[in-house]
């Protein structure tokens, strides 16, 4: 069983030597445990934050421990009455490994939506979709005609969040890196505007695309991009703080916005975590499933083959060198 072990805390982008791929024996199963073969490993920006020795929403991964990660896999052996060999499951703490031994309480059965591939369950109908869907419908609650700006808009969460907001009648502007991603947003996903932050002045583009200001912000990036949006938020604007990816590799914190706008513009700024919405996954699948099945909402996955490449794959999230939800295929479905 190959496992990625955290050896030292990275500084900046992950370097070879920060984690090590080691071979370990698979322990015998105890009562109620199952052995899960990893099929897909989900790589998420937050993985990088778990490597830091800092206070977070979960404890940091310890040095010498298997790297934590969300996985989707197949039960290969079972000593549980609730899960049988062949079941498709998502362990809460599968980790970066070929196999994981998991207690039945740490497992969730994966229900496949008819007509959609397993990669959908690992992305748009999994954690990514849950984040996008509830970040929009529960945190932002867009009203028809309101103008919403999303950063990292062509990414896994951003692209879905924008389309959910379109379904609720909002005007959606996305910020993304590069002309191809921006074209995808406006020409295929139906965004009302896109800003290529790598080649355009974000503030000037916002003034052009949102001349009446911004009512809603789904924030994924932070730093200068967030500040450009913040300085254009309208009175009573609402902001869902989903992620601050520009800070995850930073050795020096990016600049922050001026908080006095919260008072002067009576802003409603709310952070949220996807895990709080896990009990409501069925609600999301019930509304999004049909949108995906009939093509109203489009989604992409970027699949890299091989657990051995997971480190290089993770860095793609910080360079933008991926197209859609980033997954590693660890073994065949
Ligand atoms: P994405 O698929 O969006 O990948 C990350 C993208 O972020 C990259 O493709 C890149 O896009 C962009 N990016 C990276 N670094 C920077 C930077 N310095 N400045 C501007 N853009 C940058 O990942 P996810 O959809 O999985 O995650 C998106 C955000 O949502 C993250 O902040 C993540 O932490 C957050 N999140 C929060 C959750 C929660 O519970 N609150 C749950 C899941 C995700 P580009 O090519 O456009 O630059």
TrEMBL record:
Domain Enoyl reductase (ER): 17-328
UniProt cross-references to Gene3D superfamilies, sorted A to Z: Medium-chain alcohol dehydrogenases, catalytic domain, NAD(P)-binding Rossmann-like Domain
Coiled-coil features, chain-numbered ranges: none
Keywords: Oxidoreductase
Organism whose genome encodes this protein: Brevundimonas variabilis
Protein name: Enoyl reductase (ER) domain-containing protein
Record's keyword annotation contains ATP-binding: no
This protein's record includes keyword Cell wall biogenesis/degradation: no
Annotated signal sequence range: none
GO molecular function: oxidoreductase activity, acting on the CH-CH group of donors, NAD or NADP as acceptor
């Amino acid at each position: 069983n190959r496992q990625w072990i955290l050896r030292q805390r990275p500084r900046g982008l992950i370097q070879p030597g920060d984690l090590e791929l080691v071979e370990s024996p698979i322990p015998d199963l105890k009562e109620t445990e199952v052995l899960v073969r990893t099929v897909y490993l989900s790589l998420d920006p937050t993985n990088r934050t778990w490597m830091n020795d800092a206070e977070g929403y979960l404890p940091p991964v310890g040095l010498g421990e298997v790297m934590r990660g969300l996985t989707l896999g197949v039960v290969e052996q079972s000593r549980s009455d609730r899960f049988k060999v062949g079941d498709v499951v998502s362990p809460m703490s599968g980790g970066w490994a070929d196999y994981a031994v998991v207690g039945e309480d740490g497992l969730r059965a994966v229900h496949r939506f008819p007509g959609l591939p397993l990669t959908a369950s690992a992305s748009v109908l999994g954690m990514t979709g849950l984040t996008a869907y509830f970040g929009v419908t529960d945190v932002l609650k867009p009203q028809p005609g309101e103008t919403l700006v999303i950063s990292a808009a062509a990414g896994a969460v951003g692209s879905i969040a924008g389309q959910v907001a379109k379904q609720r009648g909002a005007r959606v502007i996305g910020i993304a890196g590069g002309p191809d991603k921006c074209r995808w947003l406006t020409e295929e996903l139906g965004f009302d505007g896109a800003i290529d932050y790598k080649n355009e002045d974000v503030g000037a583009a916002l003034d052009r695309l949102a001349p009446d200001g911004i009512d809603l912000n789904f924030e994924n990036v932070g730093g200068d991009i967030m500040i450009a949006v913040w300085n254009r938020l309208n009175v009573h604007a609402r902001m869902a703080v989903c992620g601050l990816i520009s800070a995850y590799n930073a050795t020096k914190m990016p600049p922050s916005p001026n908080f006095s706008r919260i008072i002067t513009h009576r802003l409603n700024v709310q952070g949220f975590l996807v895990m709080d919405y896990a009990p409501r996954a069925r609600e999301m699948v019930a509304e999004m499933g049909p949108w995906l099945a009939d093509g109203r909402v489009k989604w992409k996955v970027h699949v890299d083959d091989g657990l051995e490449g997971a480190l290089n794959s993770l860095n793609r999230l910080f360079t933008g060198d991926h197209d859609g939800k980033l997954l590693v295929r660890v073994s065949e479905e």
